Amino acid sequence: MATYAIGDVQGCYDELRQLLDLLNFNEQDHLWFAGDLVNRGRQSLDVLRFIKGLGSQAKCVLGNHDLHLLALHFGATRDKRNQTLQPILNAPDRVELMEWLRQQPMLVSDTSLGYVMTHAGIPHIWSLEKAKKYAQEVEQVLRGKEATEFFRHMYGNKPDIWSKNIDGWARLRLITNYFTRMRFISTSGRLEFSGNGTPESAPPGFYPWYQVSRDQPLEKRQLFGHWAALMGNVNNSAVIALDTGCVWGNKLTAMRLDDHVFFQQDCSAYQIHQA
Asked: What does this protein do (predicted)?
């Protein structure tokens, strides 16, 4: 039995199945997915159906593209650029898939394996205990009767720095942005949303989030996706970047958590639909 963590699939179903063949994946194994299961790739519906069908063999954290799909499903936003998501919204099992998706967590942690996973990372200003608490705040709303209202307030870049005094929808929006959109951050914890390139492209006063010294050690290694431009290179033994740009024609990456061995599947370049 082995546990593998897999980077952003983004609708690349064929490549995911090829990667699992490379792993000799079987019913005894478990998979962790770093979020962004859908969008941009052309087989998002197949990806959702397959991972949902794995049941307890799969753990997923929600990424920004997954949340965008849920917002469309709940009618909280409109976006005409969603050609790759429309098959899901037209599917006969749409409601079942969306109910499953909104039950997925923002954060997964395993003490025995020694890993914690979120889509974009955990900011240096939060301890693991606080990160778990804040993740649960968002999860509770996502799974409840206020989900539609949450999605109506989810989009936006403000507030962009944490304060315990922030409350309401602004608080939930900021927590969501730290977990699903973070790349560059200031030493005070302010987020910067315009940059998505290499670490060297950080705007003045900002740094890749994983390069900033933590206020408290997490005591677990972090797994994250979201940042394809890193191509897995972070030069930090405490964090592992899993998004290696499959949908952009690069690779889909898996890491076996039991012994830190990497596996990669070459990917075909898709006709990308921005969202």
From this structure: Hydrolyzes diadenosine 5',5'''-P1,P4-tetraphosphate to yield ADP.
